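About this split. The held-out portion is used to measure sequence recovery: a designer receives only the structure tokens and must propose an amino acid at every position. Recovery is the fraction of positions where the proposal matches the reference. Here is one held-out target exactly as it appears in the evaluation file.
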């Protein structure tokens, strides 16, 4: 496993887990965003899924640790969580920027007794439709309690372990994790639905076509709700 030259953090309260795959073009800027750079008490753990573009080497210049994992976002995030030292875990996609007060907001949620939560999201892109997509994602999540990975899910470590971490599946791992956490809401409470917005890239929406992606994602979620295995849904997604 590659090690980072960045010095570690003594007894971090928060571990930021970043799964990556061929993110060399933007990983350095991502890891230097203000909410991650120079904040005491947090560690940044990058878990690379065997990138072929040097992502791991670039990440090692800025992250506290870089791990190599079998490819698959759920597997990568679980490995990062297992290696992390923080009592709280924040799962952050490599194309997502946290709001300036993100860490303070997580701490406030923890003090209020919340065991997990997520942020609202804004999708960055050219199409004005993406603003509508963002609004619908936030409303749906607030109504259902189900979060997506784009919303920067955070969770107390013991609660993450209690539900068995992310399911080892190629798609909908964030939906399934949220559903498992929601099934324990009588025990751990409802999620903290923070209104501060993370900014995530709209690249996959614009590459596939915004409306096509909207219909595809709703179709896949409906099929998953109906019981179709995530493996066959992943084939449809690809």
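Reference sequence for scoring:
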């Amino acid at each position: 496993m590659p090690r980072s030259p960045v010095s570690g953090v003594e007894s971090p309260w928060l571990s930021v887990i970043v799964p990556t795959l061929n993110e060399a073009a933007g990983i350095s800027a991502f890891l230097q965003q203000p909410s991650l750079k120079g904040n005491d008490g947090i560690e940044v753990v990058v878990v690379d899924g065997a990138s072929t573009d040097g992502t791991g080497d670039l990440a090692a210049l800025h992250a506290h640790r870089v791990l190599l994992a079998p490819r698959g976002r759920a597997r990568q995030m679980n490995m990062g969580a297992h290696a992390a030292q923080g009592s709280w875990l924040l799962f952050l996609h490599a194309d997502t920027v946290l709001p300036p007060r993100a860490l303070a907001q997580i701490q406030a949620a923890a003090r209020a007794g919340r065991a997990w939560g997520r942020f609202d999201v804004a999708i960055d892109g050219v199409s004005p439709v993406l603003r509508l997509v963002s609004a619908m994602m936030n409303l749906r999540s607030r109504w259902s309690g189900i979060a997506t990975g784009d919303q920067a899910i955070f969770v107390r470590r013991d609660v993450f372990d209690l539900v068995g971490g992310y399911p080892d599946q190629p798609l909908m791992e964030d939906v399934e994790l949220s559903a498992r956490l929601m099934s324990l809401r009588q025990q751990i409470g409802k999620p903290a639905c923070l209104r501060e917005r993370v900014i995530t890239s709209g690249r996959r929406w614009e590459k596939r076509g915004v409306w096509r992606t909207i219909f595809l994602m709703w179709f896949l979620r409906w099929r998953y709700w109906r019981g179709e295995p995530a493996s066959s849904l992943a084939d449809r997604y690809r």
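Annotator remark: The radius of gyration is 17 Å.
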